[in-house]
Specification:
608 residues; mainly beta; Immunoglobulin-like; eight-stranded mixed β-sheet; four-stranded mixed β-sheet; 5 helices
Length: 608
């Protein structure tokens, strides 16, 4: 948004002067001496009560066109623009509210003078030739009493006519699909790729809360169309620090063909009265159409959708930590799915764990040896030095313990088809079922065949017992029942209690997807509360996809289908310089699943 200078007039006051008894002290009067006591007496006898106001003023200030600079001028010469109103007004949030398109090179000054608002161009400002300018004051001009905004738009042309075409659309976040507020929609006559970094747009508008925008008074022609979140307000795309959207091809605007018809008819209207004079004058707020075109208001709804995205940041290492024996911590500026990690082989055993933007390398090294970890990201390489020693101190000061469970299911809701999982502080190496006890109600049962270390998460132990419905279970892991990769064993008895639910407490969801492109790959997800992933699938070379999720919790689920063009199993953002749009995402909220229901849902996957 173009910055604006706002001035307040010296000596102006928006409130009446306060009453001062000193005004009377210098001019004593018998009349005053008599009336003042009388007024006090009457005031003391007055009935006290609460003052109530009248109807709230909801009328915005009205523009006084006779004393204002004429709107919709052609052959406009740089001058001070004066907007006069029928009441006192104030300026508010000028910097964010006032939009001038095409943008000016210098900041204009906008100030209030009594009942007028005046806009003055910078002395060095040079207006473009044959261009239609639109100054939208938004909600910057308000009345003094209630703050009612005056919807003022001032239009002028430096050429012979007012351009009258318009462009409407909406800006959405490419990943979430939600509307984006305060995004710049920009049109360039120069359609070179570099223009977004080197030039200001010829036309622009800002999106509202609903993501919608409208650019009015646009001339016919071919334009480069770009949307931008521009936090530094310089009208330039500054790379990965900003979000951008673009159309794949030029936006071509054509003037509609002239509509000419003979509407001449005989005047059959009699004068209203013989004394009435014709006082009709030209409407100074009416637009002057471009020759060969017709003027029409902007469309009510969006005509195009631009998907705003942040380009993928170049991966780099922000944290490398190998202070203590047993682990190396690597932190990155984003999720490191493309990082390549190698290391010197000195007989160590390594387990790699990733949590969001951090990779943790757990290692067990019997020999007291130094070694190195190599991290390649993009074209750069980092090295982490892992020092020798410290193993004895680590084994002496650490213990294998179970992690706290932040969200235990309520009693009676443990899924009878799911294992009981217990996560520990270190990767696990072995377990001893002879030191594990499981009680079904009060009866002891064998657990040997049902215990395993999770192959995807070596820090987790799973007990996949064939649970009975509506039954209470108690598990006890005695000291020494679990051993980690460092040879550390559990020291205390670990206890877990659950009560299973009934199958009727859950529901079954069957999903049928249609209208997939068999030449493409898709990544399909079912999301629960908080966008937690309930299930996901890779779908390749199929026109449809069918699946069933049995015995899942009742509730409302969301379907998400990513058009996985590069086949990497995740959503890929766009690239402006590579002319690559972000991968499209289809979303749909499914019908609510109720307990003991079988819900069959058919969805046609149609991307916008």
């Amino acid at each position: 948004m173009l910055g604006l200078f706002v001035k307040k007039q010296n000596g102006e006051s928006q409130s009446a002067k306060a009453f001062s008894p000193a005004c009377f002290a210098s001019h004593p009067s018998p009349l005053i001496s008599f009336t003042l006591p009388l007024c006090c007496l009457l005031a003391s006898c007055a009935v006290q009560g609460t003052l109530t106001g009248g109807t709230k003023d909801e009328t915005p200030p009205r523009l006084d066109t006779l004393h204002s600079t004429p709107n919709f001028q052609t052959h406009f010469q740089k001058q001070t623009i004066v907007l006069a109103f029928d009441e006192w007004v104030e300026l508010k949030d000028v910097f964010s509210q006032v939009v001038i398109s095409p943008p000016l090179a210098k900041r204009p000054t906008i100030e209030r003078k009594k009942k007028t608002i005046q806009l003055e161009f910078d002395e060095s400002e040079v207006l473009r030739d044959s261009a239609t300018y639109v100054i939208n004051f938004g909600q910057a001009i308000r009345d003094l009493t209630e703050g009612n905004p005056a919807p003022i738009v001032f239009v002028f042309s430096t050429g012979a006519y007012i351009d009258s075409l318009s462009v409407s659309g909406t800006v959405q976040d490419a990943f979430t699909g939600k509307p984006v507020e305060n995004a710049l929609f920009m049109l360039y006559e120069n359609r070179a790729d570099s223009v977004v970094r080197s030039e200001r747009p010829f036309y622009f508008a800002r999106s509202g809360k609903d993501g919608n925008f409208t650019v009015s008074n646009v001339k016919p022609g071919a334009f480069k169309a770009v949307a931008l979140l521009d936090p530094n307000l310089n009208y330039h795309f500054d790379g990965e620090s900003e979000q951008i959207a673009f159309l794949d091809s030029a936006l071509v605007l054509k003037a509609p063909p002239p509509s000419v018809s003979d509407t001449t008819v005989a005047d059959t209207l009699a004068p209203i009265a013989p004394t009435v004079q014709d006082t009709l004058v030209a409407d100074t707020l009416a637009p002057l159409p471009r020759p060969g075109s017709t003027f029409s208001p902007a469309p009510a709804g969006p005509e195009m959708v631009l998907h705003l995205f942040a380009e993928e940041k170049k991966l780099f290492l922000v944290l490398k930590e190998a202070k203590a024996y047993g682990s190396v911590k690597l932190g990155f500026n984003r999720e490191p799915y493309d990082a390549v990690i190698t290391f010197d082989s000195v007989g160590q055993t390594i387990y790699q764990e990733q949590v969001k933007d951090t990779i943790l390398l757990w290692y067990q090294l019997p020999a007291d040896t130094a070694w190195q970890v190599y991290i390649r990201q993009d074209t750069s390489m980092d090295t982490v030095q892992v020092k020798r020693g410290l193993r004895a101190a680590f084994l002496q000061n650490n213990a294998l313990v179970a992690e706290e469970i932040p969200n235990l299911p309520p009693m009676g809701k443990h899924h009878p088809a799911k294992p009981l999982a217990i996560r520990f502080s270190h990767p696990l190496a072995a377990f001893d079922v002879s030191k594990m006890l499981l009680f079904e109600d009060t009866a002891k049962v064998a657990v040997g065949p049902f215990v395993r270390i999770d192959s995807l998460d070596p820090r987790a132990l799973q007990l996949s017992y064939p649970w009975k419905e509506g039954t209470s279970y108690k598990a006890q892991l005695l000291p020494g029942s679990i051993t980690d990769i460092f040879g550390l064993a559990t020291f205390d008895t670990l206890r877990r209690s659950i009560t299973t639910g009934f199958h009727k407490d859950f529901g079954t969801l069957t999903l049928h997807l249609a209208k997939l492109n068999p030449d493409l790959s898709y990544f399909v997800k079912i999301l629960g509360a908080g966008d937690a992933i309930l299930a996901s699938w890779r779908v390749r070379n199929k026109a449809g996809f069918d699946t069933t999720l049995a015995a899942i919790n009742p509730g409302t689920y969301n379907l998400e289908v990513v058009e996985d063009l590069d086949g990497n199993g995740r959503w890929t953002t766009g690239s402006y310089d590579l002319h690559r749009q972000p991968e499209r995402i289809f979303r749909s909220t499914l019908e609510e699943l109720r307990a003991n229901w079988e819900l069959d849902v058919a969805v046609e996957v149609v991307f916008e």
